[in-house]
Amino acid sequence: MINLNKEKLIPVIIISLTVILSAIFISRTGIYIKNTGGAESGGKISNTISVSGDGKVSAKPDMVQLNIGFQEKASTSKEALAKVNSKIDSALKILKDNGISDSDITTSNLNVYTEYDYSTASRRIIGQQASETLEVKIKKIDDKATRAVNIIDELSTIDNLQMNGIYFDIEDKTELFSKARELAFNKAQQKAQELAKLSKVKLAKPVSISDSTYDVTPVSYSTNIANFKTASTARNEASDISSISSGQMDITANLSILWGIE
Predict the structure, then answer these.
(1) DSSP H or E stretch at residue 179
(2) Residue 27 lies in a domain
(3) FRET pair for 97, CA 20 to 30 Å: which of 22, 105, 184, 237?
(4) pLDDT tens digits, residue range 152-188?
(5) What's the number of domains the chain is made of?
(6) Neighbour count for residue 198 (Cβ, 10 Å)
(7) According to DSSP H, which parts of 65-107 are helical?
(8) Taking the model in full, what pTM does it have?
């Protein structure tokens, strides 16, 4: 049995109570301390430097995406839909005659609904309306998108066609993203090396890498077919073709890297 006199026991009790009360206070306030260093393979904890880097490469678009719509009214739903389908068939013929494959044509947003007149106290039915949208990819375009202009010119012969969107894009961005990530990594590494030198520490291997890269939104050129010169006019006025130049697209990668330091 361990015997403690009263003079030695009192300080021990005070210290114990202080520790317990401190723990209770910290747990209630949500404050805590933890080691944020990265774990090495040997189980040791290493200090770290956190940096980010971005890389950007530019390339010319090689594809145009079209969003074209058709909308018709009639006394019955069947008649309205038949009118839309007739124009869809005309558009599909033009696209296929120009070498657009079935896999590059998607039908979407088919709607049939009743149209009402609200000008009087009680609404009245004035007909049925049908609408449908085609998403079209025109690949392997040149800098002036000549092929796309010719196709749009032919599609514009269809009465009441709606050009909802025209977008330039790149079909395969794999190599571009790889290059952008390499540039981002190199930039992050340069930052880490500079910080390590300033801190008089040795830079080790990365502990973690977070990639927040995402695909870019296609570049919108126009939402109104009237902004395009017809192919026949463009042939006579060659300078007008450049007004729809595809330009360049930027592919960007973003990395956040935690580097170990010794």
Answers:
(1) helix 174-199
(2) no
(3) 237
(4) 999 999 998 998 888 899 999 999 999 999 999 999 9
(5) 2
(6) 8
(7) 77-97
(8) 0.66
Q: How far is CA 13 from the centre of its chain?
A: 62
Q: How many helices and strands, by DSSP H and E, does the chain display?
A: 5, 9
If asked whether residues 164 and 188 sit together in one domain, one would say no
**Whole domain around residue 194: which residue ranges?**
45-58+174-215+256-261
Cα 253 to Cα 57: distance, rounded to the nearest angstrom: 9
For 5-36, the DSSP string reads -HHHHHHHHHHHHHHHHHHHHHHHHT------
15, burial (CB in 10 Å: exposed 0-12, middle 13-18, buried 19+): exposed
In a domain, 130, yes or no: yes
pLDDT in tens, 197-231: 999 999 999 999 999 988 876 766 654 444 444 44
Q: Tens digit of pLDDT for each residue in 63-77?
A: 999 999 999 999 999
What distance in Å separates the CA atoms of residue 199 and residue 191, rounded to the nearest whole number?
12
Residue 84 half-sphere exposure toward CB, CA atoms < 13 A: 27
H or E segment to which residue 63 belongs: strand 63-74
